[in-house]
Amino acid sequence: MEPQLAALATSGATTPVGLMVSDGWAQARRRIAALFGRGDAARAEDAAGELERSRTELTLASDAGDADAVAAIRGEWEADLRRLVRRDPDAVAELRALVEEFGPRVGGVHNEISGSARVTGTVVQAHTVTGLTLPSPRA
User: Fold this and answer.
1) 114: DSSP letter
2) pLDDT at 23
3) For the chain, how far is it from start to end, CA to CA, in angstroms?
4) 138 backbone dihedrals φ, ψ, rounded to 5°
5) What is the dihedral angle through the alpha carbons of 119, 121, 127, 133, rounded to the nearest 10 degrees?
6) Does this model's pTM top 0.85?
């Protein structure tokens, strides 16, 4: 499987699992079930049932703090999505649309420095800084 499709399947699995415990679940569930149904109402209904079973398991696992069970549920949906996009290339565009619509929002970064200390000069906030040259502070 192409790396891009594998990444899409991963984010596609993260999206429904995250939504299972949110207010947008009902709308997302219909769309995800339709994606798996591929135009077949009975298959979509079966997928909706599987989604609800997973939601129940996820709620119990989350309440119990069972991170392994949560990861296993996500892994099951990831495997199902990989099979789906491998079997039906037309599903790729629909899955991308679902991830864009319901996936986690990537927002801007807002850093705030506060406190009673007076800071003058350059402030650098970063995870890793290499090869950085700063000008000397003015006297």
Assistant:
1) -
2) 73
3) 60
4) -70, 145
5) -160
6) no
